[in-house]
Amino acid sequence: xxxxxxxxxxxxxxxxxxxxxxxxxxxxxxxxxxxxxxxxxxxxxxxxxxxxxxxxxxxxxxxxxxxxxxxxxxxxxxxxxxxxxxxxxxxxxxxxxxxxxxxxxxxxxxxxxxxxxxxxxxxxxxxxxxxxxxxxxxxxxxxxxxxxxxxxxxxxxxxxxxxxxxxxxxxxxxxxxxxxxxxxxxxxxxxxxxxxxxxxxxxxxxxxxxxxxxxxxxxxxxxxxxxxxxxxxxxxxxxxxxxxxxxxxxxxxxxxxxxxxxxxxxxxxxxxxxxxxxxxxxxxxxxxxxxxxxxxxxxxxxxxxxxxxxxxxxxxx
Length: 317
Hints:
Blueprint: E1 10-15, H1 21-34, E2 40-46, H2 52-64, E3 68-73, H3 98-101, E4 107-111, E5 115-117, H4 122-125, E6 134-136, H5 148-152, E7 165-169, H6 170-175, H7 178-186, H8 196-205, E8 209-211, E9 218-219, H9 220-224, H10 227-232, H11 234-242, E10 246-248, H12 267-274, H13 289-294, H14 302-316
């Protein structure tokens, strides 16, 4: 039987399609390495058409680690009419449904499948949420999108949070029917959303949010440029870099630790975690002869190198 509001139990929600299943497993492996699996319940959200063999591999592995598993099958029609972007499947909307999916729980920690835990999640899990809908970390905004939060209707840039790590106050969200508000906003055909699920979550929930330290969602941007200093200040950014609790490999495909071109200083932690899963083989995406030539170059040269590569590909096609 699934533990409900047991003070000792840490409830984690995650979601994946077939492609992201190994990455989600790596996330969970990193969590199990930092907190006792027997004190963790994994609420795994997936579509009805997920490959059964691969799904069962994940489920059997989670149980073998000693964690409790609560599978949550999301009907396709529940999210099929919601806006999307080509690079992210509709599973991005599953998190919005958690207050309805888990009526017995007061809170849940949701994590994307491109995250690696580096410390116990207990301090995060125990964050006070009284009267607030959630706790989350500010989204690091690059200069060309810094106006986006205000254009959405938020008061300032720092009112916009990143949705990769969310500590939801499910009890309060149910009381206020936040899920209905988010879905209503998202389904409005007049809305133009850059990051559909994240924008909708922010519009509805940002006004009652606990601001978390960026160590609990240590985004890629903190490692590669100084935009994080603009968002958090130099001292707080350095604290996050010195002691990250959750690494978030957000961004486009080259920034993912499973991609050959990823240069993140902690990318090997992903492979270390994945080695403990049913998908241990190290077989990076994007491993080609052309990329093998480009990767040793200074990253400032990469845009030009990629343009040359694409030009040659067209000429040889």
